[in-house]
């Protein structure tokens, strides 16, 4: 197959503060021929769904080398997780027509050379877009973060912040399936309703309407919190620290409230970790990819049986991608933010 | 034995800011007879050594009930760890003449009813005062905090703050015995010399002479820190967070730099926990007292063979106790701060 033009979303320049739609730009790269170079071990793919994830904010900032993910290159297409169809393959693990998920480019067509970071999609009996979320990186993040990092036990109290997001909605449902008591926080009435009515959280609250987060947590957790799944950082973390129970665990998945600040907020209540003997642990999904097979065996049937529900916020077209990514940091998405590039 | 007067150190009132010697007062309680009440299961002891420990600062502040140790009662004697001789026992586990260590009062004689928190001293072939330190609570703190909480491995890099203190000097030596590379920080040249020359730390520095703690840590740990044994908190923790290695561990034993502040300092670099997948865990020695037997089997021979050295700062007389305890928070002690009340 010969491709002679390729729409792309490029990052104009490194970003400070909240990312704006105008920090990105849709361009059309003219190319005489987009095909797999002779002898290449890579794959040429057509991108179907692109994933907007909070960690991408870090890649928009110029940083020292050595960070666990490199920064974007201004003037070049943004890269991120996505679902794609293989058009041409130089890697024997993939063949034309295969669906894959993994790191790809924000463009119509990508030439992926790092094929070791691609997963072949075997089950297409679920929405393909799920492989950007529940069946992709956010899914493993929720699964490993909750089951491996939090060491949860039935009956424990669990608090999830950014609870309607790509990861939070799953953590809450995993916790409910285990028999935990789960409370979530989110930033709008619509999201709080989702938590209560769709995802089965025991309780949920809108953090923007709580003048005192400590008091809110004491209301929902009169006996304290056994497990906190941390997605936001800052003031919420400080309030949680005052409400942890003895031997509690905090899995730090992300701190989205801090990503756009010039200077991160100071966290003042770390001394609570001592008396309550709390374990606080940062993690990245990447370290748990070896559990992906086991994860699929658990989650795929649960999706098909309706035991786990996943809510996506899908925008159509590459031209909508800059707005969708910027919106993620303003909390505009309801559920997992996905960009549909092409249905097939 | 009949005792008719009892010198005591009382806390005058709850303390704000740095404790001063004048926050405490030496009084002589007149008593017609200090003896074990009829039918008591407690023990009457003569106190020999009293321990000045950083955690005592928290007990000088009026706090909500539910804290893991209660506050002191203004007008009543301070309580704390100590070594004592049993004068009279209503508990079959102890008899007259036994030496014990555990929670006692800051006074010449104490009637201890909570005998379950007393340990009988079997080996008196070492200085009795050691049972306030290396062979007592600080010893178990260092042992459990390092071996159980930090999951150390030979060859790893270890950083210890407040490293010449009761706990820090032991952590450094335990780490050296395991084959780790150990750097310590302390607050004076004398202490730094101790770390280097007496305790066998690979390197040591005076944090007060480092305008940039991050730069200091980068100098001593060009490859980063695998294990941080946290005794101080605040700015040091913030600098350490920037220098942790992948899968690093931080055992939070205490945060002495924060205990006397009206408002604790904010810690800004917690996001580093995520990308480096660091585990940070608070702990208290009390949860590891079941390891005391095993601990003694390891540490007693090491002391006798000179493989572990312990430095104490001993002041004589109950009247010196208020100054010694206040001095602890100003860093005036060099080594474990002990008050000798009576030699036998």
Automatic annotation (TrEMBL), chains A, B:
One of its GO terms (biological process) is response to oxidative stress. This is 2-alkenal reductase [NAD(P)(+)]. Its EC number is 1.3.1.74. Residues 20-339 form the Enoyl reductase (ER) domain. Belongs to the NADP-dependent oxidoreductase L4BD family. Homodimer. It comes from the Eukaryota. The keyword Lipid biosynthesis does not apply. It comes from Malus baccata (Siberian crab apple). InterPro entries: ADH-like_C, ADH_N_2, ER, GroES-like_sf, MDR_fam, NAD(P)-bd_dom_sf. Keywords: NADP, Oxidoreductase. It catalyses: an n-alkanal + NAD(+) = an alk-2-enal + NADH + H(+); an n-alkanal + NADP(+) = an alk-2-enal + NADPH + H(+).
């Amino acid at each position: 197959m010969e491709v002679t033009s390729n729409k792309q979303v490029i990052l104009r320049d490194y970003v400070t503060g909240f990312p704006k739609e105008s920090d990105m730009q849709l361009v059309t790269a003219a190319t005489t021929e987009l095909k797999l170079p002779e002898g290449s071990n890579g794959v040429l793919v057509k991108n179907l769904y692109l994933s907007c994830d909070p960690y991408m904010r870090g890649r928009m900032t110029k940083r020292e080398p050595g960070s666990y993910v490199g920064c974007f290159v201004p003037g070049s297409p943004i890269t991120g997780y996505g679902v794609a169809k293989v058009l041409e393959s130089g890697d024997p693990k993939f063949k034309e027509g295969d669906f894959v998920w993994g790191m790809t480019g924000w463009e119509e067509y990508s030439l992926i050379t790092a094929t070791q970071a691609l997963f072949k999609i075997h089950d297409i009996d679920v929405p393909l877009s799920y492989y950007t979320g529940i069946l992709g990186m956010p899914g493993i993040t929720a699964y490993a973060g909750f089951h491996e990092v939090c060491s949860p036990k039935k009956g424990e109290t669990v608090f999830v912040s950014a609870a309607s997001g790509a990861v939070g909605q799953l953590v809450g449902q995993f916790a409910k399936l285990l028999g935990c008591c789960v409370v979530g926080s989110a930033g709008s009435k619509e999201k709080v309703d989702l938590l209560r009515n769709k995802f089965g959280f025991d309780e949920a609250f809108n953090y923007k309407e709580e003048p005192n987060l400590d008091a809110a947590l004491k209301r929902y957790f009169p006996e304290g919190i056994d497990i906190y799944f941390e997605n936001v950082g800052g003031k919420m973390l400080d309030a949680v620290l005052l409400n942890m129970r003895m031997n509690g665990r905090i899995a730090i998945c992300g701190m989205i409230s801090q990503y756009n600040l010039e200077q991160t907020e100071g966290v003042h209540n770390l001394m609570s970790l001592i008396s309550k003997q709390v374990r606080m642990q940062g993690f990245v999904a990447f370290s748990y990819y070896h559990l992906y097979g086991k994860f699929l065996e658990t989650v795929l049937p649960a999706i098909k049986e309706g035991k786990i529900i996943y809510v996506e916020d899908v925008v159509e077209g590459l031209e909508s991608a800059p707005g969708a990514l910027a919106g993620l940091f303003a909390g505009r998405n309801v559920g997992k933010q996905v960009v549909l590039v092409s249905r097939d």
